[in-house]
Amino acid sequence: MTILLLGSGGREHALAWKMLQSDKCSKLFVAPGNAGTEAIAKNINISPTDFEAIKNFVLQEKVEMVVVGPEDPLVAGIYDFFKNDEALQNIPVIGPSKKGAQLEGSKEFAKEFLVKHNIPTAAYGSFTKETLEKGQKFLETLSPPYVLKADGLAAGKGVLIIQDLEEAKAELKNMLVDEKFGQASSKVVIEEFLDGIELSCFVLTDGKSYKILPTAKDYKRIGEGDTGLNTGGMGAVSPVPFADAVLLEKIENRIVKPTIDGLQKDGIEYKGFVFIGLINVKNEPMVIEYNVRMGDPETEVVIPRLTSDLVELFLAVADEKLDQVSLEVDPRSATTIMVVSGGYPEEYEKGKAISGIENVTDSIVFHAGTKTVDGQVVTNGGRVLAVTSYGDNFKEAIQKSYQNIDKLKFEKMYFRKDIGFDL
Ligand code: AMP
Ligand code: GLY
């Protein structure tokens, strides 16, 4: 079948790589893609949120399935756009409906959903410009640090964790009144701070049944020892060594099952990935966020560990027959290290020639911010390459990734040398 994948990051390169291993995928387009997807599929220059252009392309090329990588098109309602269009309604979209995508698109919606379905999460309050004073009073009832979250999508930057009460009050005003994160912070969720280690759980669902994918942990800070600014993610490890059978059972029974049941009870159509961000507080898993897509760079370790046919799984999702297929996982560990442009996540330069990819052995190089100019692969974003390796344990896998990163070169290249340090 002909498949269209939307997105352009390392996540999409990993999804494309895996889908192309299926006999069921005869042709794969990626919009807009990167140099990595260009080498294995066909890139097309369409924005993932330009639904009219996507429609024209899908009809013209007889695309038979659309797989959505990033959250923006999902929150903007691509699932409903297809469903409500006579010419498109029989073409499955792998992703939630617009309502389902609100689990990521609105922190308040997600919190209401969690509370309604009795899923463990931090206590919270939700405030607007009109209730600023109430919000500041609410902060006084909490102990530091204070967690402030812009309600809407803010490209991963909308969460502030602040030690000082007065500063937290000032930031709350900044967000609500001065629109620090634009429209996204016209509402702010204030949460109780949860102290523990983070991990992520990934679920594929057809809206009724579900499959739990391997666990993963990412490293969000730019600096070694988890210091400095937040990034999209600087590396990831799967499985998470501390996620033992007891913890996984709690995650499934208290979080995954009630989430999928909750979607069904609330009549929310959902045929795609759910990425559940968790904090393990004294061995009690609690939800800190939902995302309605796979994580990046977590995909670059989770997807390589699936031995099942991903396209078959997607077809089962589309047909609501996920309970009839099995999901097989490679027992080895997988790790990925992100190689980024110097300066990221702040200002950085693009267009730097990348060399050495062809010398990598025993690791997989997934491209993120890259493009090809006159046959030369150059940098085209902050996060540039994700170097994934397998190993009998995560240490062995990490070592392979670092050995191969030594062969890569571009001007001002940076990567964290301590991925997995805390495990
Ligand atoms: P989010 O965008 O909701 O994932 O938040 C970004 C990051 O903020 C998370 O990965 C956590 O590290 C942190 N965080 C969010 N909510 C809380 C919380 N209630 N307690 C402690 N840390 C949090
Ligand atoms: N790595 C975190 C995310 O994809 O949101």
Structure, described:
It is a single chain. Helices cover 29% and strands 28% of the residues. It is α+β, with helices and mostly antiparallel strands. Strand 20 (370-373) and strand 21 (376-379) form a beta hairpin. Among the domains are: 2-94, Rossmann fold; 124-191, ATP-grasp fold, A domain (Dna Ligase, domain 1, 2-Layer Sandwich). Helix 6 crosses helix 7 (107-116) and helix 8 (132-141) packs antiparallel against helix 9 (165-176). It starts with a strand and ends in a 9-residue tail after the last strand. Strands 1, 2, 3, 4, 5, 10, 11, 16 and 17 form a 9-stranded mixed β-sheet that branches. Strands 12, 15, 18, 19, 22 and 23 form a 6-stranded antiparallel β-sheet that branches. Strands 6-9-7-8 form a 4-stranded antiparallel β-sheet, sandwiched between helices. The structure holds adenosine monophosphate and glycine (GLY). Adenosine monophosphate (AMP) binds next to strand 7 and strand 17. Its EC number is 6.3.4.13. It catalyses: 5-phospho-beta-D-ribosylamine + glycine + ATP = N(1)-(5-phospho-beta-D-ribosyl)glycinamide + ADP + phosphate + H(+). It is an enzyme of class 6 (ligase). This is Phosphoribosylamine--glycine ligase.
